[in-house]
Amino acid sequence: MEVKIAQSWKNQLNHEFNKPYFENLVHFVKQEYQNHTVYPPGKEMFSAFDRCDFEDVKVVIIGQDPYHGPGQANGLCFSVRDGIRKPPSLLNIFKELKDDLGKEIPESGNLERWADQGVLLLNATLTVRANSAGSHQNKGWEQFTDRTIEIISEKKDGIIFILWGAYAQKKGHVIDSSRHFVIQSAHPSPFAADRGFFGSKPFSRANEYLSNAGKEPINW
């Protein structure tokens, strides 16, 4: 089956594309795009992979669903397009970034600049029906993204996994923490940020780890 994803990832994930669960997923997603408004646009479905080659991954941040409002989702977890108002979780991420590294909150909530530096911004579910949160859960995406995390854990060393909230932490159970650096905290959503996200300093901790490993830190 031909899947339009960056070649470096195709090399790693090719065996997934012919499995029955993935064929069922493709059929479901095609039907959804034909019959409903679905986010992100089809060409951005694999943006997290396309903007961050397998060889370049330094950091993995795990989200849950794409945003389901008009014009928000761009295929990267927590990220929105230029000119779109920052959702509350993303605003809290930027507040923590300012507290952690002294960086002013940026004009844009578009996180492509992170992805281009080796941050894989991976949602567990890569598509969603408009105005219907969770509508594409349990259709096969989670199995595909679990396998993605597993392959990174198995085939690479010294990757930083940032797991915000119980969902991401549960999804991270396949990570070999003896070979990788796992940063866990509460989720940045307004309902949880005060319970351990604020003050967790994930950005400075990640950069310290990269520096100690002789790698270029991320310009967050």
Concise summary:
With 220 residues, this protein is α/β, with parallel strands linked by helices. The protein has eight helices and six strands, in the order ααβαβααββαβαβα.
Summarize this structure as a short list of keywords or feature phrases.
220 residues; single chain; 8 helices; alpha/beta
Explain how this protein is built.
It is a single chain. By secondary structure, the chain is α/β, with parallel strands linked by helices. It has 8 helices and 6 strands. The longest helix is centred in the first third of the chain and has 16 residues, at 20-35. The termini are far apart.
Radius of gyration: 17 Å
Give the DSSP E fraction (strand runs of 2 or more residues). Answer: 5-15%
Q: What can be said about the biggest beta sheet?
A: 4 strands, parallel
Strand order of the largest sheet: 3-2-5-6
Number of strands: 6
End-to-end distance: 37 Å
Structural class: alpha/beta
The total count of helices amounts to 8
Assign a percent range to the helix content: 25-40%
Summarize the helix and strand pattern as letters.
Answer: HHEHEHHEEHEHEH
Low-confidence stretches: none
Quick check: average pLDDT?
Answer: 97
Specify the overall morphology. globular
